[in-house]
Amino acid sequence: MAHPTTVPGAAPVMHLKPGRHFAAATLTPRQIARRLPQALRQAVRLGWRTDRPVLLRLLTAQVTAALLTAVALAATVGVLATVFTNRTDITTGYARRPCR
Questions:
Q1: Residue 34 and residue 40: Cα distance in Å, rounded?
Q2: Which side of the chain, N or C, has fewer Cβ within a 10 Å radius?
Q3: Looking at the domain assignment, is residue 36 inside a domain?
Q4: Do 23 and 43 fall into the same domain?
Q5: How many CA within 13 A on the CB side of residue 49?
């Protein structure tokens, strides 16, 4: 376990001991990308063995979130394309309410 090094008047500084966690902290992005599929498979297997219904709900929620994000991004692109091509106010065409 890492122990903080204390300096009077300064916040503690954490240092990793050489070993498994130190090696993981020094991985390159390419090495992380190579290990990611195996880590995801392990996580899914663990979730499947632990609680299948919760895992399925989690996957459903993630897919739904991804779809809603895609719809929001597509709508944003549409609005921005209209604003930048026509150089008009984006509220044009909407009913205006009087200020109170």
A1: 11
A2: C
A3: yes
A4: yes
A5: 5
Would the pLDDT of 32 be above 60? yes
Alpha helices in 1-100 (DSSP H): 20-25, 29-50, 52-86
- pLDDT tens, 68-79? 999 999 999 888
**Amino acid identity, position 51:** D
- 88 and 56 in a common domain: yes
Q: Give CA–CA dist 80/88, Å, rounded.
A: 11
Spatial distance between the Cα atoms of 71 and 86, rounded to a whole number of angstroms: 23
Instruction: Round to whole Å and give the CA distance between 7 and 71.
Output: 51
pTM, full prediction: 0.54
For residues 44 and 55, the answer to whether their CB atoms sit within 8 Å is yes
Query: Do residues 42 and 54 lie in contact, with contact meaning Cβ atoms separated by under 8 Å?
Result: no
> Structurally, how many domains does the chain consist of?
2
